[in-house]
Amino acid sequence: MATAATTTPAKMQAVQYDAYGGGAAGLKHVEVPVPSAKKNELLLKLEAVAINPADWKIQQGELRPLVPRKFPFIPGIDVAGVVVDVGPGVNGFQAGDQVVAIDINHTFDTTYVQSGGGLADYAVASESLTVKRPPNVSAAEGAGLPVAAGAALKALKAIGAKFDGTGEPLNVLVTAASGGVGLYAVQLAKLAGLHVTATCGARNAELVRSLGADEVLDYKTPDGASLKNPSGKKYDGVVHCTSGISWSTFQPVLSDSGKVVDITPNNLSTILTTALHMVTFARKRLVPLWGPPNKAELEFLVTMLKDGKMKTLIDSRFPLSDVTKAWEKSIEGHATGKIIVEMEG
């Protein structure tokens, strides 16, 4: 439909790793060919990419042998940038459009491994997972959305939240509410008209309250560790954004049909508990959450930013040349909001 707005170079700077493990030290700055947009794809000149725990967990091998399918591997899924070229069949975008995209093809398809990830000057994204970014939403704000806000939105929908004014005023708990997913979950839950209890460290309690939490529990206190609602309410749903909390802790604080939606279902305990609830038809359930948001969900999230109904809280920003610092910060944990890598030049 459109041709590149400017001359695209043959090579680009990127960050990749060539084996499982290694942490930040395993990341290498390399020069690789710029990818090209194939059918139903867009070539993006990237401006910002968010670092998610999933990125370094993939490096650690937590999803092997599914991901990566091949080495070397350029990580990075949540991206924002400008369209510079479009492939055959693309009708909704043209060169010059500012966008937010889920750059996930490279993660599961070996044809993208050498040149497809988000930690690079350019990346290819599917039209079906790309949305336009309005002028009042910055690249960094947009890049923070897909994985984290998408997980929060999907989790709340699984609990029963509705965003059209027709939902019930459910009582929900958000664990690790000052993290990347948790901060979005609190805001989205309030947009859905839910009563929100949140757990976080004492230093972030006021921030979480300012985003709409009705009650905040310090997870280091006995009441916080037991997840007891200060008002004595039972939770209709939990957006579970951390690890290390057993099902036996959740069970007594749930309503009769309460659900715990686990956004980090990568351990055997989660899998076994979920299977047990399914075969016994339990009303209280642990529900694993898989997969990125779809296009309609991503458009909804961008619209919430545009309209000022939600915001991306950014913990820190790093240039691509300092990507190892961003990687280390994510691995260390306790970031308040999103960790963003911004492209230089």
From TrEMBL:
InterPro entries: ADH-like_N, Chloroplast_QOR, ER, GroES-like_sf, NAD(P)-bd_dom_sf
Gene3D superfamilies in alphabetical order: Medium-chain alcohol dehydrogenases, catalytic domain, NAD(P)-binding Rossmann-like Domain
Domain Enoyl reductase (ER): 22-341
GO molecular function, one term: oxidoreductase activity
Any Pfam family: ADH_N
Protein name: Enoyl reductase (ER) domain-containing protein
Organism in which the protein naturally occurs: Eragrostis curvula
